[in-house]
Design brief:
CATH architecture of the largest domain: 4-Layer Sandwich
Mean pLDDT: 83
CATH class of the largest domain: Alpha Beta
CATH superfamily of the largest domain: Metallo-dependent phosphatases
Distance between the termini: 35 Å
Number of strands: 15
Order of helices and strands: HEEEHEHHEHEEHEHEEEEEEE
Largest sheet: 9 strands, mixed
Number of domains: 2
Strand content: 25-35%
Helix content: 10-25%
Radius of gyration: 20 Å
Length: 337
């Protein structure tokens, strides 16, 4: 069975005006598909308050991108390239729309694998469900030899999915694999038992990978109102991440896209909108860099040397977010005893 589970402003009229503008902005965002950016605004006396900024994506309301894929990755020689999807397995039209865009970008980027952030198969887990919710939407990718590496979400059936060969889980709830000098550490965030924590500590510590990327379903940090951050999970795994030099963490669960400010050198992404979507899901925060809760999407990632390049793309082929992350060299540590 699937898992269960302000700043102080002396002028009151100015405050009221600001609140009114923010309310109008949130209303317009829901109608037009704005992308929300969060920054800090220094006011009188040096006080800092979170401010949401909106950037309208070209072509909103959303229409198909007919000019071909807009690529913001450098496509360097000998780089490692992959795609990211999360909360994808509905079998509904929106999943197929996203899958179509992933194939369009694969032809341009040439990535060879996809990481899955959980909730890979919603509802029943019969062979017909795997066909309609995975094999058919991603058939062009599978036919091209692209491999998928799944993590387990709360809607997944671990007894079935970990044995499903196209998910490449090797029969395990948690596992690791390496591509070039990038190590991927795949966790089961539904049940973080002592055995998994010991495995995580030892596997990360013994890894010689230049980049260490962890991915799992439930986010440690989130500005979504539907679920929010998993504080218990954060308390369990974050000390291990920091001791062992984890660079990037990908999660799903919240049906939005969010890029957060790095926390102690670790970069966090939430991508839970590759089929599902929760609109008007964000709260104002200083932790958000970019958030999108009005469209579904996926990510493409390229790692070359000490740089990770990323691009987040909507189901109609428009770029939601992009950027570069530089690898920080962690100080050597010893595992906890």
């Amino acid at each position: 069975m699937p898992y269960l589970h302000r700043k102080n402003v002396p002028n009151s009229r100015r405050s009221a005006a600001i609140r009114s503008l923010l309310s109008i902005g949130l209303f317009l965002a829901a109608l037009t598909g704005f992308v929300w950016h969060s920054r800090s605004s220094a006011g009188p006396g040096g006080n800092v308050a979170p401010v949401l900024e909106a950037t309208l994506q070209a072509g909103a309301p959303a229409q198909a991108n007919t000019s071909g894929p807009e690529l913001r990755l450098p496509l360097e020689a000998k780089s490692v390239r992959f795609a990211v999807i999360g909360d994808s397995g509905t079998g509904e039209r929106e999943q197929y729309d996203v899958a179509k865009q992933i194939e369009i970008y694969r032809q341009k980027v040439g990535f060879e694998f996809v990481i899955m952030l959980g909730d890979n198969i919603y509802g029943n887990h019969s062979p017909k469900d795997f066909e309609s919710k995975f094999e058919q939407p991603y058939k062009p990718l599978l036919d091209a030899g692209v491999k998928f590496y799944a993590s387990l979400g709360n809607h997944d059936d671990p007894g079935v999915e970990r044995l499903y060969k196209p998910f490449n889980m090797g029969g395990e709830r948690y596992y690791s694999f390496q591509k070039g000098d990038i190590g991927f550490f795949v966790l089961d965030s539904n049940y973080m038992d002592p055995a998994q924590l010991d495995w995580l500590e030892n596997t990360l510590h013994n890894s010689k990978a230049k980049w260490k990327i962890c991915y799992f379903h439930h986010p440690l940090y989130s500005d979504g109102k539907s679920h929010g951050p998993d504080l218990d999970l954060r308390a369990q795994v974050l000390p291990i991440f920091k001791r062992n030099g984890v660079n990037v963490v990908f999660s799903g669960h919240e049906h939005v896209y969010e890029r957060l400010k790095p926390e102690e050198g670790i970069n966090y992404f939430i991508l839970g909108n590759s089929a599902k979507l929760m609109t008007r899901d964000f709260s104002s925060t200083q932790n958000m860099v970019v958030g999108k809760d009005t469209e579904r999407g996926f990510m493409i990632v390229e790692i070359a040397g000490d740089n990770l390049y990323f691009q987040t793309i909507s189901r109609v082929g428009e770029t939601i977010d992009s950027g570069t992350i530089g690898r920080q060299t962690p100080a050597p540590t010893q595992p906890a005893h």
